[in-house]
Amino acid sequence: MHLDARSTCDLGLVDYDEGLRIQGEHWERRRAGLIPDTLLLCEHPPVYTLGTNATPDEVLDAKRAQVVQTDRGGEVTYHGPGQVVGYVIADLEHRGRDLHRFCRDLEEIMLRVLADFGLAGRRVDGLTGVWIGDDKIGALGVRVRRWVTTHGFALNVDCDLSYFEGIVPCGIRDRGVTSMAQALGRAVDLDAVKESCGSHFEKVFA
Questions:
Q1: What is the arithmetic mean of pLDDT over 100-107?
Q2: What pLDDT does 6 receive?
Q3: Hey, how many other C-beta atoms are within 10 angstroms of the C-beta on 186?
Q4: In the β-sheet with 76-79, what is the strand arrangement from edge to edge?
Q5: Stretch 109-135: mean pLDDT, rounded?
Q6: In this model, does residue 159 exceed pLDDT 50?
Q7: Across residues 178-194, what is the average pLDDT?
Q8: Catalytic: 170?
Q9: Is 12 left (phi over 0), alpha (psi -120 to 50) or beta?
Q10: Helix axis angle, 190-204 relative to 99-116, nearest 10°?
Q11: What is the mean pLDDT of the chain?
Q12: Which long-range contacts (CB under 8 A, 24 or more apart) does 12-16 make?
């Protein structure tokens, strides 16, 4: 069954393990055709997550935050309050089984959100995610099982960037990390960013 509608759900602040559990439930329901492609928005308490390509030396200070091994692709990243995490549960059977396109669509959502707030984000050849200048502002890491996705993107809105000093973000040692608040020089309303994420998810995945 192919459901044409899109759905966005704001989970609020949830522990990382609880976020994984909720994703698993939505994966089962999407696989069964019971729900449409869905965006789960949330924040997490401070946590370093290691993707399947991460190496132990990429965690420089494991005392700063919880460290969790995950089943998503990519290296190590940080999640914490003030960062919007978007978990996308999507059926790629109806999108040409094109994982490359799916990743570019996640980047497109973040680029459009930044534009809504007057920021010019960009892609960087050979690297994933979204950047402002040479600083990364949006990361992504996904898993696909039976052509249904889990995990997704993380957009730095108004988070404590010092936590990134405890890791090698996304395995990249020669570039910085920024946030919307830092780039704009002012506080940014997290709920407004979430609303923008949901709006552009519906448009990009239509």
A1: 97
A2: 81
A3: 9
A4: 66-69, 47-50, 76-79
A5: 97
A6: yes
A7: 98
A8: yes
A9: left
A10: 140
A11: 95
A12: 12/42, 12/43, 13/42, 13/43, 13/44, 13/45, 13/81, 14/42, 14/43, 14/44, 15/44, 15/45, 16/44, 16/45, 16/47, 16/49, 16/66, 16/68, 16/79
Partners of 78 in the β-ladder: 48
Residue type, 48: Y
Q: What is the mean pLDDT of residues 82-101?
A: 96
The partner residues of 12 in beta bridges, in order of sequence, read 42
**Nearest in space to 153 (alpha carbons), one of 135, 171, 128:** 128
DSSP string, 23-65: HHHHHHHHHTTSS-EEEEEEE-SSEEEE-TT--GGGBS-TTSS
pLDDT (mean) for 99-125:
97
Q: How confident is the model at residue 4 (pLDDT cuts 50, 70, 90)?
A: low
- The CA distance from 34 to 141, in Å, is 25
C-alpha distances (whole Å) from 32 to each of 37, 137, 145, 186 are: 12, 34, 13, 44
42, 103, 159, 170: the catalytic one is: 170
